[in-house]
């Protein structure tokens, strides 16, 4: 039940502030309560399943592409997030000024502002990467490794 999940979340959170807690919500209303109880994120599997079914009905090719990228070993590309630390060579630079995004054709799908801020989708090349921002990429394994190396981060 959601009450059991809330209790487990409260108990887990008391064990550590840095613990990542993903809680299962049975209702839409309980998602917010679980986050207030200390869950890092709360998910409602029924809601997610319903949305995926609707996506396959309304945008079948997009949904199949995303499903393949997220869950198939046969697809050469994958999504990756790269959190840019303050000491990174990327911090404070424009996307256009970072060679690998020009030369390697690594698409930056979005940039999330620091501290889990808003997402800027399809960021313009003039966008400055703030320290603490997260880059969302779609790239090959080799490209992802190269981005992490250039950014001074680890996958």
Structural class: alpha+beta
Helix fraction by DSSP (H/I, runs of at least 4): 40-55%
The topology string of helices and strands comes to HEHEHHEHEEEH
Q: List the total number of helices.
A: 6
Mean pLDDT: 91
Give the overall shape, derived from the CA principal axes: globular
Could you give the order of strands across the largest sheet?
A: 3-6-4-5
Approximately what portion of the residues adopt beta-strand conformation?
A: 15-25%
Largest sheet: 4 strands, antiparallel
| N-to-C CA distance | 36 Å
Low-confidence stretches: none
Gyration radius over CA: 18 Å
- Count every beta strand, where a strand is a DSSP E run of 2 or more residues: 6
Description:
The chain is α+β, with helices and mostly antiparallel strands and 155 residues long. It contains 6 helices and 6 strands; from the N terminus they run αβαβααβαβββα. The longest helix has 14 residues. A 4-stranded antiparallel sheet has the order 3-6-4-5, with helices on one face. Strand 4 and strand 5 form a beta hairpin.
